[in-house]
Amino acid sequence: MFTRPAPAVNVARRADSRMLPAMSPAVLDGSSLTLALVEAQVGSLVDVLPVALLVTSPTGEILRANAAAVELLGNPALVGQSVTAALEVAEQESLLKVRVRWLRQEDDVLKLYVIHDAED
Hints:
The protein has 120 residues and is α+β, with helices and mostly antiparallel strands. Helix content is 31%, strand content 24%.
């Protein structure tokens, strides 16, 4: 018994069996690609960790902030802001301890900020 050939996953057809034009692939810059890889590897873990985490571009733009970071820094709109500005505002209100780690994927780099109260 043979099965009918199935169209490829990325091939779309209209009702009249004509092929639809293929979608162009998304273009990702280095930081976006590295962030996507971080998300794929540890994205759900970042969300549930009780420690505040920020992921930034090499220039310091916040690309990702977990719930603990939003709560500790008191700012629900962290993504897109400068990490320096966000931390300066928070440090005026309380003492923070910040550790920075570099996330590297080939030539692309992101920074991971681990933040907690200095008293902890």
